[in-house]
Amino acid sequence: MRYLTGLQPSGQLHIGNYFGAILPAVLLQEKGEAFYFIANYHAMTTMGSSRMLRDNTRGLAVDFLACGLDPKKAVFFTQSSVPEVNELAWILSVVCPMGLLERCHSYKEKMARGIAASHALFAYPVLMAADILLYNSDAVPVGKDQKQHLEVTRDLAGKMNEAFGELFKLPEPVINESTAVVPGLDGQKMSKSYGNTLPIFGEEKELRKLINKKIVTDATPLEAPKSTEKSIILTLYKLFASSEDYDRMVQQHLAGGVGYGQFKKDLFEAYWEYFRHAREKREWLLANPGYVDDVLTTGAVRAREEAGKTLARVRRAVGLAWE
Ligand code: ADP
Ligand code: TRP
């Protein structure tokens, strides 16, 4: 079973990204052959500055490795280190009806947010289909928002097979419905667009302050019982604490006598401890940039090998090559 997924280098990772995307990917590398890449071509559709694109790409490589991506188990590379993907995207775009792309929510949603409607933004799902089909992926772990792009991919694979013979298998999306949406510090979905995130990595003092000052609580007095359903602190604490510690905090909510200040302190300690190992690993990676470059270079060689085979087959099938 080959799993493939791409993550956009769009800035500082938060714990929503961790529980929704990074951790599932790290767990899947044990279960099959994993191809994971940093979608820097895609990020160009929304990122203005070259420095930001470069820094975020390197930053994501470091953070993903720090969070447990094992380059001995997963093939890890940047999307742009395999330029073959652009040729496949072109070929797929030949069989792609305009209407298919016009229906995509993500494009409409980005335009509504004021992002300029470029050709790249419109063609984004075709490049994503090329990412997936180039590596003969069986299964693609993605967030719910990407489900429609997987449908486009399957559609395009089907059209290619119909027109040129069996070229591609149809990849399955792996959408973990049970991965609860991680709430942000204000209780809405955690998202960098809402400015309500808790980063995975950062300065201790700043993060402690973020938890203390930004998590929204109600005005229940210290002595009174507190709602367990509405407690953002409790929902976040569950992600990091042992089940005994979590149960204890539930009891303390129900019984009263413990204030939100103490709960926030407990949350910070559990969160800080949870990422201790990843933080140490990250320090090491930041001090050894050569290692990160080597991992990405090795990954790119392996990915290109696979890409080259697929592309040769496709070029022959569509009439671009004849030996
Ligand atoms: P953001 O909303 O901060 O812009 P992205 O859309 O870049 O995050 O998401 C990258 C990955 O992280 C996706 O797989 C997405 O499903 C996952 N993810 C983002 N926010 C959350 C969240 N609050 N809870 C669970 N998963 C999330
Ligand atoms: N579009 C995906 C996102 O924004 C990133 C991505 C690009 C991707 N290519 C992919 C995900 C291929 C899975 C497979 O999250």
Structure description:
The chain is mainly alpha-helical. The protein folds into two domains: 210 residues, Rossmann fold (3-Layer(aba) Sandwich); 73 residues, Tyrosyl-Transfer RNA Synthetase. It is built from 14 helices and five strands. The protein has a three-stranded parallel β-sheet. Strands 4-5 form a two-stranded parallel ribbon. Helix 4 packs parallel to helix 14 and helix 10 runs parallel beside helix 12. It starts with a strand and ends in a 5-residue tail after the last helix. It binds adenosine-5'-diphosphate and tryptophan. The site of adenosine-5'-diphosphate (ADP) has 16 residues, from helix 1. The site of tryptophan (TRP) has 12 residues, from strand 1 and helix 7.
How are the elements arranged and paired?
Elements: E1 2-7, H1 15-28, E2 33-38, H2 40-43, H3 50-66, E3 74-78, H4 84-95, H5 98-102, H6 105-112, H7 119-134, E4 139-141, H8 147-164, E5 172-174, H9 204-214, H10 232-240, H11 243-255, H12 260-274, H13 276-287, H14 289-318
Parallel strand pairs: 1-2, 2-3, 4-5
Helix pairs in contact: 3-13, 4-7, 4-14, 7-8, 9-12, 10-12
The protein binds adenosine-5'-diphosphate and tryptophan (TRP).
